[in-house]
Write a structure and sequence with these properties.
Layout (H helix, E strand, L loop, with lengths): L2 H11 L5 H14 L13 E11 L5 E6 L4 E3 L1 E4 L7 H13 L5 E2 L6 E7 L8 E12 L15 E4 L1 H6 L6 H17 L1
Parallel strand pairs: 1-7
Antiparallel strand pairs: 1-2, 1-4, 2-3, 2-8, 5-7, 6-7
Length: about 190
């Protein structure tokens, strides 16, 4: 299965939670016809990325990191490697690299959320879109967090209430992912 065929199948199986997610899915469907590999990070208009919200199986807390370049709290994620043709692979690899957690596993094989967002121009890289397929990952070893060299320096396990009480600003799509992931984790327990 090619990358684009996999993306088409993931889109066909996904139920959007709101109008924004539905519109984002339509954007991705439209962009699939523009290139042979929408996961190729060199496609200038935008490309598929994989990200994941890591959840502690015991407490239900979720792990966020403060992104150095974007100056905001985010889930783990990034670009696909050349050999990856599935955003779930990308999300899992990125979360392992960035957190060092040794036992991460997918909460579901399907993305929990799909979000398209603008990445601002930086250096010689023009503004472009990240077509983010978002997954939930669980760990039973939250204390095994081992931040890799060159990764974000600020990490924190949160509950939804802690984020609200501390007035930490998260974008709507991240809140949507958190709600979906925590609900799925609770259903599985």
């Amino acid at each position: 299965m090619t990358s684009n065929e996999r993306i088409e199948a993931l889109l066909a199986a996904h139920q959007p939670a709101d109008e924004k997610e539905s519109a984002d899915m339509q954007t991705i469907k439209r962009m699939l016809s523009e290139t042979d590999n929408l996961m190729d990070r060199h496609y200038p208009t935008g490309h598929v990325t994989g990200s994941a919200l890591v959840l502690d199986a015991g407490s239900g807390r979720f792990l966020l990191h403060f992104h150095k370049k974007l100056s905001r709290w985010l889930q783990f994620g990034g670009h696909a490697e050349a050999e990856e043709n599935d955003p779930a692979q990308t999300a899992l690899r990125e979360a392992r690299e960035e957190s060092g957690l040794p036992d991460l596993r997918l909460l579901s094989d399907q993305p929990l959320d799909i979000d398209v967002h603008v990445i601002p121009a930086r250096g010689d890289q023009p503004e472009h879109l990240h077509l983010d397929f978002r997954y939930g990952l669980i760990t039973k070893l939250p204390d095994a967090l081992l931040v890799g060299e060159g990764e974000s320096e600020r990490w924190r396990w949160f509950t939804m209430e802690e984020v609200r009480m501390q007035q930490i600003v998260l974008d709507r799509a991240l809140w949507r992912l958190i709600a979906k992931a925590t609900a799925l984790l609770q259903m599985g327990q």
